[in-house]
Amino acid sequence: MANLTINGKTFTLDVEPDTPLLWAIRENAGLTGTKYGCGIAQCGACTVHMDGVATRSCGISVAEAAGKKITTIEGLASGTTLHKVQEAWIAQDVPQCGYCQSGMIMAVAALLNDKPKPTDADIDEAITNICRCGTFQQVREAIHTIASA
Amino acid sequence: MNKHVSPKMNRRAFVIGTAAVGTGLAISFDPVFGGPAVARAADGSPEVNAWVAIRPDDTVVIRIARSEMGQGSLTGLAQLVAEELECDWTKVTTEFPSPGQNVARKRVWGDYSTGGSRGIRASQDYVRKGGATARVMLIQAAANEWKVPASECTAANSIITHTPSGKTTTYGKVADAAAKLTPPADVKLKDPKDWRLVGKGVKRLDTPDKVTGTTVYGIDVKLPGMLNAAIKDCPVTGGKLKSYDEAKIAGMKGVKKVLKVGDTAVAVVADTFWHAKTALDALPIVWDEGENAKVSSASIAKWLAEGLDGGQAYVGNSNGDTKAALAGAAKTIEAVYNYPYQNHATMEPMNATALYTADKCEVWCGTQNGEAAFAAVLEASELPAEKCDVNKLLLGGGFGRRGQTDYVRQAVLIAKQMPGTPIKLLWTREEDMTHGRYHPITQCKLTAGFDADNNLTAFHMRISGQSILASLRPDALVKGMDPATFAGLNAKGDAPFGYSVPNLLIEHSMRNPHIIPGFWRGVNVNQNAIYVECFMDELAHAAGQDPLEFRRKLMKDHPKHLAVLEAVAEKIGWSTAPPQGIYRGLAHFASYGSYVAAAAEISVTDGTKIKVHRIVAATDPGYAVNPAQIDRQIAGSFVYGLSGLFYGGITIKDGAVEQTNFDTYDSMRIAAMPKVESIVMPSGGFWGGVGEPTIGVAGPAVLNAYFAATGKRIRSVPLRDQNITFA
Q: Which residues of B touch A31 (CB under 8 A)?
């Protein structure tokens, strides 16, 4: 059993302590917006915030996540008000297949939290998510649009 | 939606039929644009015809037969229907009719296959007719109600107006009456110059759910009582499952069942995927790998190299007497190139959910070919068509991989052993990387002859390597030849060669290793564009001529090819010197009915680190339905193609794929992304594809720029094997 705080709600989940956080979120908490892409923390599709830090949830066990404040894509908006990254993603028409975008949006939201006006170099360093559709040009433009707002 | 069982449906005939249509062969069907009996959508709103249902609140539901995998066809197809329907675009929503419904309604929605960049170009005509027919019927219904001639009424923005009286009504109010009318036998489509919605870069219809995590992909399906399956198929294609020791994982948490899937695979079914995967990893498995275990990348390379000179070859394009012209040439140039296996590596690994009972088999999955998936369900379940269906979901990437149905078949074979329990089968990334349908491997020898005045007189291109059709569609071979191999190299058709050379010979020595090939975004364009366009660059330099001028002389009879090439040359500033430290390269190609070109600007550090600063790209797809999405497809295709060029390459050891995940088969990140400037220049009069054509030109443009920077030719892909990386 593990107690996890996800999107401000406490979940008591029947999982082994070494279960990756990703699978506890998807299968036990039932929040499927966080995606499985590689399982080895390479692609970033499973990115969530853990105490505000962008974290690849496939590489973290529920034991390590216990007691931390976890935010998934479902918890990024404030009620019905979308987060500014989500708004920008819609305005810029960023997603193609969209599968990697939960993780991409979470990574960008964390970056903008740390650096509200990131340079291209900041973006290159912080955003290392894989997008096989190749939305990078729109991702970069959308980040700069938010930063200059 | 009402379901009608087609009484004459024969499973075997259907399976054969869809197998043929699944890869784009022409097969006739009769689109029914309405009829006296009113069909209703699930919510009860009337169908004006198969393509359009309208709710009382004026919401327009447009049916989309093709799949949406990120390429944007869902929005583009809806634009085409809405343009003719004259509906309010802000009230448009879409739905996928299921393949089972299509069969039951005599294929009213036509072909579902979404590959070959055909989604829009192959259905634009009948979907526009669907919209136009519905508009005529809606106007007629309003005219009947008002007892006025329909010719006195017009429609715009979902509002019908009787011009003389000024009376108005809305589509939602007359939809029920319209659905009862007999559809007009013929409707006139708009002249493209009158399009108001088509040609506009309107926003995608599927974006909002994708930014909130609410889109349900196949991997996200939840059904009551559902269990999860993890699978391992024999690592060597052609091998079999010999045995497994179930006792070793007895009692592992959550495990419900261990079972054989066909002759080659074993699956663990558990309460969660994590439990299924954990148990499967602990399960001792013995494979009978068979003869193919002797195959390696080295043995394949040797076999292909032998085909560059020896043995029989199929001729795809020829004119003149190339061998004689080469023998008599003042100067000859020769080069050998190669291009490796590539895996699709869609971000969402393969998966499907199946529920099998004695009288029904239903599947939920992302598929690029709903009808082929449906045929796979019939085959694996051994149930008749009226007892099967496939629920199509949005795809977490396709790129050609999800046109195949191996994962659908597996899910059904598992579910069939656990009747009444829905089973979600999910591949690990490792299973996905090692059981792909790989971009085929080839080598290519190119030989050119010049006369004493440096005019190109002969061009011989001999490809040696794997055919996709020989493996996946042997019925589509033409006297043994695979016509798809010659993408962009043909004398005519929708993928024509862009040069006129007095003596030309392009041929293919077919050699098919055991690795199963597949259609990988751009398919054979990827290597053919590198082979032709890098070699043309070599020839220009051998002739001491500017690469653009050299090409131009050979392209007089190819004005559409030339137009896109000149467009990129002009925009990148080819006629003026690049900034200090920046080097340029060009390429062009034609495929899937479209003409494309690219010009790249790069810098190189230490000869091994390439920074791609900028790529100017042009495409002439005939008509541009949504230029904003075309722009994204161009940039996206470059990410996919350049990832394959720099990082890709699937290799074989002991008959099995060596790469297992993104740590060994990497993909480009945002840091390496060049600025892509696209020129969408539709010239009209034909319908070309968008998703794939441009993928081929980024690679050769970058490689030609690398030569300009370093004086070195790269003739082998991937670049990582030569320790060349993104800067």
A: 213
